[in-house]
Amino acid sequence: MHSSEIEILFHAVNLNDRDAAARATGIVIGGRRIDWEKLLEMSVVHGIRPQLEDLLNRTGSAGIPVSIRERLGTANSENLLRQLRSITEFLQVRKAINDYGIDVVPFKGFWLAEAMYGNIAARESFDVDLFIDIQDLGKIKLLMQDRGYVITSLVTELKEEYILKELCEYNFGKFEDGTCVFHFEFHWGSSRPLFRMNISLNDLRSQILSGELQGNRLQVFSPAANLLLAVMHHGGKEQYVQLKQVLDIAHIIRMDKDIDWQWLRGEAGRFRLERVLYTGIRLANLITGVEVPAAVEREVNSGSVRRLAAGRMRMISKTVTGLGKFSFETMGWFFHIRSRDGVLLKIHFFRHYVRKVLIPWMVPRRFHYLFYNKEARINTKISHAV
Which of 16, 34, 78, 89 has the most other CB atoms within 10 Å of its CB? Predict the structure, then answer.
């Protein structure tokens, strides 16, 4: 059985009947003890404070502490302001980059909120994510530094050859009085190569469309490409442990009429991601109530996908209490192994599970340095792993 707090959060991301979700939430609040601080903490971890505030407003004020409403309202107002500022800064950075003849395509972040949620305040985000061609990274670095951005500290500790070979993004921040006011992430892939989803901008060019943002024409990804990138990041990398990740997929598949399923299924097959894709869609159906598209209904209802989705439902319910625990991390890597196809790929993930989870758990902390990739760092005395 779910806790009262996670049950309320499930109601918060219901897209099928929000009034029914509000009535059910009122019953939970009126009949059970609610740990409001825990609920707020869980909404932060799951990235759905806008949805929780909307649900509580629909439910009514009875039994809901004023302080909880106020803190949610403040956080969501700050999120709206952050998105507006990010869009303004993005448009300026994009123009400067385009003047160099370089293409950048926004994804996740404010663009997903704008294009799929229909409201930039409805999705929490803190970064500006842009897809680029890796060949343009050198020019982008110079341009961003000229605009007052600094390279994030972790990147400066790594050797350039390691960054280009083993990572998928380069991060920049702009600071005012010691506070990071803008954070840009330039991606040349969907995730680190270890996850075997190294899709490039060239792979996605057939899915680049013309879009509009605040009266500005720009290049954007199609719903199919947005869904593929969301599945790669939220499922193929992060293992579907946040309600926000499931909500992203739900909002995208509501655009069913615009999704190029033939292209999407082909790309999912190429990267051995079919079951990750179908599991994400099944979770979106179970949690948000969004309909399963007819094009993938048979696959989404298969036995293996049902089992994978049931396991993820249990992990989503444990996201807050399970973070950092051996069993939680083990189940995450087992999801990678079970959801991806191919014997060699499964062996690859098992080896990384042994290195990343099993050995650190079995070996005393003072010996962990023996398993670090020191060659990746400029300063080999730094003691955290890559």
Answer: 34
Ramachandran region of residue 47, left (φ > 0), alpha (ψ -120 to 50) or beta? left
- 3-class state of residue 381 by DSSP: coil
Q: Please provide residue 182's backbone torsions phi and psi, each rounded to the nearest 5 degrees.
A: -140, 140
Q: Which two tokens stand for residue 150?
A: 């600094």
Q: Rounded to whole angstroms, what are the CA distances from 358 to 221, 291, 325? A: 39, 39, 12
* DSSP summary character for residue 62: T
Q: Decide: 24 and 56 in contact? Cβ < 8 Å.
A: no
Q: Which residues pair with 186 in a beta bridge?
A: 130, 170
Cα torsion 309, 315, 317, 319 to 10°: value is -140
Q: What class, spelled out in words, does domain 83-221 have in CATH?
A: alpha beta
**Residue 183: strand pairing partners:** 173
* Residue 104: its H or E element: none
pLDDT at 249: 98
Given the structure tokens 């302080």, which residue do they identify?
67
The Cα–Cα gap between 101 and 112 comes to 25
Residue 282 phi/psi, 5° resolution?
Answer: -65, -40
Task: Provide the b/e sequence for 327-342 (b: ≥16 CB within 10 Å).
Answer: ebbebbbebbebbbee
Which of 108, 119, 111, 129 minimizes the C-alpha distance to 80? 119
Residue 67: how many other CB atoms lie within 10 Å: 11
Structure tokens at 88: 């303004």
What value does the CA radius of gyration of the chain take, rounded to a whole number of Å? Answer: 21
Residue 188 DSSP one-character state: S
pLDDT for the residue numbered 371: 63
Distance CA 130, CA 108 (A): 9
pLDDT digits (tens, 9 = 90+) for 159-176: 888 888 888 999 999 999
Question: Is 83 in contact with 125 (CB distance < 8 Å)?
Answer: yes
pLDDT at 372: 60
User: Which parts of the chain sit beneath pLDDT 50?
Assistant: 380-386
Q: To the nearest 5 percent, what fractions of the chain are helix, strand and coil?
A: 65, 10, 25
